[in-house]
Amino acid sequence: MLLLDGKKLADELKSEIKTEVDQLVSQGKKQPHLAAILVGTDGGSLTYVGHKVKACEQVGFKSTMLHFDSAMTEAELLQEVAKLNADPDVDGFIVQLPLPAHISADKVIMAIDPSKDVDGFHPVNVGKVTLGLPAFVSATPLGITKILERYNIETSGKHCVVVGRSNIVGRPMSILMSGQLPTGNATVTVCHSRTKNLKDITLQADIIIAALGKPEFLTGDMVREGAVVIDVGTTRVTDTTSKAGWRLKGDVKFDDVSKKASAITPVPGGVGPMTVVSLLLNTLQAAKQKL
Ligand code: GUN
């Protein structure tokens, strides 16, 4: 069984990005600049944005973190988005999700300038990706694509089963896997909460992408011998033995499934670090498009 080490791969990619940034700066160009808006104090979101800011420092990007109280109104947030859209120093920015219930995430995403939408959530970017045109691909699907590419996992003609249909992962992933890309050309089945006989379908998969957000959902009996398994889950479960009082669990029952899989991503250290590095790749692309 091959462990698909997202942490190691993310470190390699960060070092490649840093080399490019150093070159840009030595040519007198400005540092790429990523900004992040965070509203409220959701523990997961605070951690994720913290990782993103730290990763910016590691590769020589400038970063700005804008943290607002959860009582902020939708109109106030839209104003902050407009300011970042207009700021010539900011190459790309993200609004961390989820947002408080009184703010429409759709409205906020649609207010982002697509040329600065390094999360790839704006309909213009989603539409372009769907048509196979150059655009910002959302970070988690892009990270998974990089794992498949760098580990030389054959996808052409394979049956890829995506479990979960979220706008952030499942849906864009299914489009990338079926598209005409080096890591595409797969036959894709998208499964979700209304899917009947899920196990019959996952047992036919050469590649399984588990992105439904239910800890240890995918068990060994649902996986064919030799399948490639990508675990996108990051649920915090209570763990009194850990210092934080919780630990991360993926959507895959790792001990069980790793005995069947030919290759598998761990949690933590699999898709998570690749999501962060993909955001850096999109920001570098945004910065270079302006040169
Ligand atoms: N919440 C969970 N994943 C993401 C992500 O990739 N980007 C943003 N902005 N919010 C998220």
List the SSEs and their pairings:
Blueprint: E1 2-3, H1 6-26, E2 33-39, H2 43-59, E3 62-68, H3 74-86, E4 92-95, H4 105-111, H5 123-131, H6 139-150, E5 159-163, H7 170-178, E6 187-191, H8 198-202, E7 207-210, E8 228-231, E9 235-238, E10 246-249, H9 254-257, E11 263-264, H10 271-289
Parallel strand pairs: 1-11, 2-3, 2-4, 5-6, 5-7, 7-8, 8-11
Antiparallel strand pairs: 9-10
The structure holds guanine (GUN).
The site of guanine has 9 residues, from strand 4 and helix 6.
Would you write up a description of this structure?
- The protein has helices at residues 6-26, 43-59, 74-86, 105-111, 123-131, 139-150, 170-178, 198-202, 254-257, 271-289; strands at residues 2-3, 33-39, 62-68, 92-95, 159-163, 187-191, 207-210, 228-231, 235-238, 246-249, 263-264.
- By secondary structure, it is α/β, with parallel strands linked by helices.
- The chain folds into two domains: 28-113, Leucine Dehydrogenase, chain A, domain 1 (Rossmann fold); 139-271, Rossmann fold.
- The protein has a six-stranded parallel sheet with strand order 1-11-8-7-5-6. It has a three-stranded parallel sheet with strand order 3-2-4, sandwiched between helices. A two-stranded antiparallel ribbon has the order 9-10.
- β2, α2 (43-59) and β3 form a beta-alpha-beta unit.
- α1 (6-26) runs parallel beside α10 (271-289), α2 crosses α10 (271-289) and α6 packs across α7.
- It is globular.
- The protein starts with a strand and ends with a helix.
- Bound molecules: guanine (GUN).
- Residues 94-97, 119, 139-140, 168, 275 line the site of guanine.
